[in-house]
């Protein structure tokens, strides 16, 4: 049976092409080449190293989030993390999250759905940590005169995102503590509009929340908090190193400011690897510091390249070493999606 075209994938590619057009339409390629010639390559190796440190710290945090299910091995967690982020860069629809869960589930003998549930908590941890970065940036960054509108827009986006995360957290807390009451409430809201869909949602919510387990010991909670802060510190530092490699000396809050834009960018539907949206967000953030377009784009390309190519190489090596098949993983994802439909 012939597979239907993936509409979401083509929409994402279309969005990426649109943002790439906006970026390159007024670029002087001779000036872009000149900007790249200014690059000091000595800053690149430490930036790559710090990027992998952030992936390793993600594996550490994941270990603590999985403790209520099973004590897992870092020898399995770290490669699975690399494989997942590699897949996010190469496959559509953020399939990397499923790949990451599937890879670890196969190695540790844990059900993929249970591992995937831990990644929901993992993403919530990221959300609240980046909100902390956002708030610190609000109160410490000083943009050049005339750029106040960007800061106001960022503040508005931060408040909206904060409200969404608080809402999600409150819903999950209710779903965990008063499962049946919350499920009935959701069903009652959806029933008049889509009765069949309401039943499916109710079933999925019960399965989902039963798989979410959160560490309860103070030491484990502390480890999750500390690792979350270190993850984002080691993700922001490479941005600062790339800026310095181009001779741009800005306070670390500027790198935090850029990272906030990048986080919002990866939420936008785009092609695999967030091509276009990532670069547009980075250039937009840098424009607040009055950098010319060609230098800003060169910084964006190098920053994206550091988060794109090294993890792909490492992830593909782990796939080869562990004898995993992306085709089988994709088939397993299709099977699970079909079973939950």
TrEMBL record:
Main location group: membrane
Parts of the chain that traverse the membrane: 7-27, 39-57, 115-141, 153-175, 246-268, 296-320
Location in or out of the cell: Cell membrane
Protein keywords: Cell membrane, Membrane, Transmembrane, Transmembrane helix
GO-annotated cellular components: plasma membrane
InterPro entries: L-PG_synthase/AglD
Bilayer topology: Multi-pass membrane protein
Pfam family, one: LPG_synthase_TM
Record flagged with keyword RNA-binding: no
The name this protein goes by in its record: Membrane protein
